[in-house]
Amino acid sequence: MAKALIGHLQQDRGLPVRLAAENRQLRIRIAELEALVTRLMEENDRLAVASAAAALDSEHLEMQPA
Length: 66
Hints:
About 95% of the residues lie in helices and about 0% in strands.
């Protein structure tokens, strides 16, 4: 019984190491995804400004007398 208990305890020692490694990988992936979201939000803002400017330009051209 003692051998089984010792073997069980030795296996448990590797579990925190694996969990820590997986946790580290997940944190890295989260940081990558957060950076991607930030980049996409900035790109979306730039595109919205460009679209609004283009709409204003086209409105301005349509309002000029011929």
